[in-house]
Amino acid sequence: MPRLDSPAELEALRQEILSKRDPDKPCITICSGTGCHAYGSEKVNAALEKEVKKQGLKAEVDVRRTGCHGFCERGTLVVIYPDGICYVNVQPEDAAEVVRSAKENKVIDRLLYVDPTTGEKVIHESDIPFYKYQNRIIFGNNRRIDPKSIDDYIALDGYSALSKVLSQMTPEQVLEEVKRSGLRGRGGGGFPTGWKWQTTRDASGEPKYVIVNCDEGDPGAYMDRSLMEGNPHSVLEGLTIGAYAIGSHEGFIYVRAEYPLAVENLDIAIQQAEGCGLLGKNILGSGFDFEVKVHRGAGAFVSGESSALMTAIEGKVGEPRPKYIHTSEKGIWDRPSCLNNVETWANVPLIINNGANWYASIGTEGSKGTKIFSLVGKVNNTGLVEVPMGIPLRDIVYKIGGGIPRGKKFKAVQTGGPSGGCIPEQFLDSRVDFDELARLGSMMGSGGMIVMDEDTCMVDTARYFLDFLADESCGKCTPCREGIKQMLDILTDICGGRGQDGDIELLEELSEVLRDTSLCALGGTAPNPVLTTIQYFRDEYAAHINEKRCPAYVCKELVSYYIDPAKCQACMICLRNCSAEAISGGKDKIHVIEQSKCTKCGNCFDLCPPRFEAVEKISGESVPPSLPEDERVLVRGKE
Amino acid sequence: MNEVTLEIDGQKVRAEEGTTILEAARSVGIDIPTLCYHQALTPYGGCRLCTVEIFRGRRSRIVTSCVYPVDEGLVVKTKSDTVIRDRKMLIELMLAHAPKAKVIQDLAREYGVKETRFKTEDPENLCILCGLCTRICEERIGVSAINFVGRGVARKVQTPFQGTLDVDFDACIACGSCASVCPTGAIKLEDITPKKPIPILSEFEMGLDSRAPIYIPFAQAIPNVATLDRDQCVHFATGKCKICEESCEAGAIDFEQEDEIIEVEVGTIIVATGYDQFDPSVIPQYGYKKYDNVLTGLEFERITCAAGPTEGKILLKDGREPESVAIVHCVGSRDQNYHEYCSRVCCMYGLKYAHLAKELANADVYEFYIDMRCFGEGYEEFYKRLSEAGVNFIRGKVAKVTDEAINDEEKGKLIVVSEDTLLGKMVRVPVDMVILCCALEARSDAENVAKLVNINRRADGFFLERHVKLDPVATPTDGIFIAGCCEGPRDIPDTVAQAEATAAKALSLISKGTVTLEAAVSTVDESICHGCGRCEEICTFHAPTIISKDGVLISSVNEALCKGCGSCAVVCPTGAIAIKHFTQDEILAQVAALTEA
Amino acid sequence: MDQEKIDQIVDNYTGEDGVLIQLLLDVQKELNWVPKEAVQRISERLQIPLSQIYRVASFYKSMSLKPRGRHLVNVCLGTACQVRDGPRVMDRIRDVLGINPGETTPDMKFTLERVNCLGCCALGPVMVVDGEYHGKMMPAKAEEILKGYV
Question: Chains B and C: how many Cβ contacts under 8 Å?
């Protein structure tokens, strides 16, 4: 890779790359994000490459491993360009057929996506409802790029924004543009990015630092990971532009320990960019220096908090610091430091290339641009979705998400991770943006969106989040360390049937104090899941406390399993698989669960053939007495 | 530094930029409760108890005052309803975490928190994770022997690899700072390190108590200021600490201070260097330093002092009160092996101890004496009173003190074996405590002092007075006076009288302005003297000095210093120096007159 | 423990500040845990007090101060997997291995860890063994997979 010493040389390289690529040449792209990797995409890729070689089609068909496409429910995804034919659930055995069809420009029917509502097959990616209603201005590029190839990025106008900034704009102009765009932080805080940059620029102290927060600790959120794995150059470009605007020459990228592929692709991207002169000393011959270091996290959610992250970069234990002096004035080693989320940085090149006005035209009054959400949980089309701010929540869950699987009833959407809250059905028409979600008692957070249905217990959900936070609390301040533990104890008791009158009030009391006195947002927002579930699902709490009943049949201690003798066909499947040996019965003998031995593992419920559905869950009432021994003989032919 | 004005609880407060609300509040006497705050450590913000409510315009916020910086126009309320509510809940949480910690119980009482609604996992836990111990070890002592370990509720204070560390890596220096700064007493030195701390024994408390490296010697010290023991100070050892400097409001501590040599010209010197107590460990049969409860007189003084190590209670080493006490006279005095003289004061203070032992501990007292020397005002009467009060007086020299019991009655006791001359036999008296009335002896550096000021010592080691009966406060050296026990053992009334006498003598010398000298001083015939210097060499009073006069070396005599002893005249090879009125011619003339019949 | 290996890792970061966490991660990767001798050696080389290094190692989940088993079993309990019955899978694995998350089996075969979101939410519940991903887990399936490891 030759070193580029001017914007003109970058353009020339871009043209050169494009000239070598035939836009009409079929390209088989395989999604190789971690999600599809778990589906076995590596094997699919290997099979495809082998087939191309075998069929002698190297010159006629390209195979490209790309970053995450987003439709994680249907991995492994393979998309044939330039037509955009999308195949889902591809297996290695399909390789030969896929290659041939790419060459012959044909379509493989059986691998197409079937719309569950219409029953129709959809050929083109853009027509699939999951993609159709999205606005993938940032994430869309993932499907066109092999993250290990800087050429792919350059071919898609990559680094043109940086080039423009370094040659045509002053730092102040860049700041103005970002401010006017209305971009707000995508990590959860939603703070106006342009203002944060300005404060850092104005603060005294050298050197100034810029930081990418790729800790993404919220359970259920993995957008940053897919962006970092799939398109690391977009983040690097945004970061370099930001550094130029702020006056920083040193940057850190903090990636959590659980993302080894992101670290790998990032390292490669940095090496390539430095080799090209797009990073490091004298970028594109402009005289601007900017260097970047990757810092790995080590398994602590609290270290994703901005002041804790900076402390971790200093090599110390990643605990939060008191917030009264802003980190943009005194951050890493007490120097001005500007920390932004991965997605925030990735938005910057778009703003520069297309202008603040264009960016501000997307979204709502208070929240501009798009947001990438991880839509997961009880929803048909789980995956990563990018939507304009202000889209109704209903659209995300039903139009894009495809609704709740197995015909179950929607119950709530949880946003904002452990700092957020649960939004019930009555607010499904709310428009999703920073302020609206906050008004509902939740928050945007980093973008995790977990759909819950009638089989989700909201009290257990609150307990789950507190359990998570108790595990992750650094333990420095009393309210978080002691308060979360006590709230968890109370909720565990409620889920275990030991709830008492006054528990809810005590939880609310504790919540107020945690909000006021916690040192950082982990403790300060810990009450949110509890308070929103109490607010919107108080009846579930009442059932647990007063009736010792779990309406969703989730809380183990409140649920009993019972085999309906009228339905049991004595097939022995549950009996053989009961790890507690609690089921008695035999061929032609009705099966009975002995309650004292039952561990509530739910295996029998899972395994009872759907046509019998003999195993029931009972909560809040006593289990019917077992049939006497002599009456347990099965008489077939009975209805 | 800029100053800002803020309002705390309705009071206008001025504070320097950069101070915290807590510091500003404390500077005007407004108290905000804290647990994890220490003035000499960086603010931690962990306990959250110092929470206050701040107002800017109509918006209010809850912040911790120990870290929040003051700002112009800030309005602070330290006891608003929200603050009190928050503090109460925090205390309730802490009460569940460490129910037996006294400081938490006190706070609970103060804030009306009667009980906690929360579960306690470990009722014996005392640690509230305030971090004071870890911070003092890291920031001030500089060794970081202990630190936090783990996170969340599993967080605790520990040494790394607790208990399994190689000695080389045990960074603890056993200074005990962690234990002293812990608000609940949760941390104990023996849990941190097997190293035993070497206490710095207080010289004033006769080694019965310890002191810090920086200390005020005793309550009545003159000047009543602290002194820093460089050899024990952590700052001089590690370069860190300096907590004392931080805490001193007067800013009086200066680590750069060096010894100053001050030269003062004076005409009179009073030597009042006192005495040393005889060390009875050279008499091994008395068991001093061998047995726990054998004490010297001065040690017993500290024990009975209300400001002493036992707050005035007479206690044995293990904390019990003694049921019986033996007081042994003439330890080191009137003894051919040690000091032949009588130390004059021991009989009386021995009686004083008997009285105290009876009054304070209600103990049986056995006084072993050779003679009872009660010469002063009220002394004989006191002796009589004590015999009537039941003190047992046994006339005899104590042979030994032992713990080897020969019967049940003696088990666990110290047995004083002595002759009873009045009964005519040996007695064994079992007691709990033995007090040795030790001799008063000349100080160990008396020789150096004597050389320094040019005075002499007697055979018994004390300084020599000019005349034992008629001039007891002056010395043969003009202008040098002695007072007090440096001249010999004496009691308080006598010492005071002597001190006043010495002062008067010194003052009269000073006020006279002129001094009458003896006429018989040496004089130099400059025509004969050739400046050999032998007179200068031999004179102990430094009266003659060799000077250069008109290019010639000659001896010059300071008549004020000359005592007329005549040593110079004896050594002078030329006869140039001679005593006035005793010149060769004069003596020969006297001899001639005598022989003229 | 090979002191040379530790020295090599420390040498990689010569001249850099704030590298303690990265160093310890490398040691963890190299030796499968962080032994006492490694902590002592790092303390000597970097002149950082022993207690500070120990504190860092005890704070983070990715570092283990106790020896780890041959096979690392990560069970995801992120919100999405939680909602899809992940806890039942964890319960079964706990029963089968006889240990709690954070512990190692006495025969040093398995170490069980709970993870909060691996980013494969579509495949939830997810279990990863030695870096190999197993999606759409059910308690019985998980047990079967684990039995296949020696």
Answer: 42
